Amino acid sequence: MLKSVYLAGPEVFYPEARQHGRRMQAVCAEQGLAGLFPLDAEIPATPQGQSLAIYQANRALIDRADAVVANLRDFRGFEPDSGTVWEVSYALARGKPVVGYCPTAATIAERLQASPHGRLFDAQCAVENFGLPLNLMLAHSLTAIAYGSETHFAGLKAALAQLQGI
């Protein structure tokens, strides 16, 4: 039975990230789960060694969690946050169930075509068009993908519901 879930995603970069994390943890608590948010870890205040401490703390939280729920929305382009993708991959390698969520089921190609550039190529290379909302390696490795277009919390709730059914 699942008891805790690591909350992976770019929320740590949001304004008022800690408050956002607390709201995410409240959504988890409504589902009977303890939400482990990356910013809850004790990190030294000095910049020296801080990045390594963040890496180690996040890895420890993932190791402690029973599962991972990951916000895989577009971040700085048409792909998810690379740190979140690493956390997903690490959890999968550890044998943990991972449910990702996106604001829409639109494919990468559909989102690109709707962009002002309207093309299937970025500046230097072709963009895959397999009818998936995420890169094929990520989409096929996840335990499930949930969608919640109304709000971020709708996506989180949909992902937690998928996770409870596993």
Automatic annotation (TrEMBL):
Superkingdom, taxonomy of origin: Bacteria
Taxonomic placement: Bacteria, Pseudomonadati, Pseudomonadota, Betaproteobacteria, Burkholderiales
Name this protein carries in UniProt: Nucleoside 2-deoxyribosyltransferase
UniProt xrefs under InterPro entries: 2'-dNMP_N-hydrolase (IPR051239), Nucleoside_deoxyribTrfase (IPR007710)
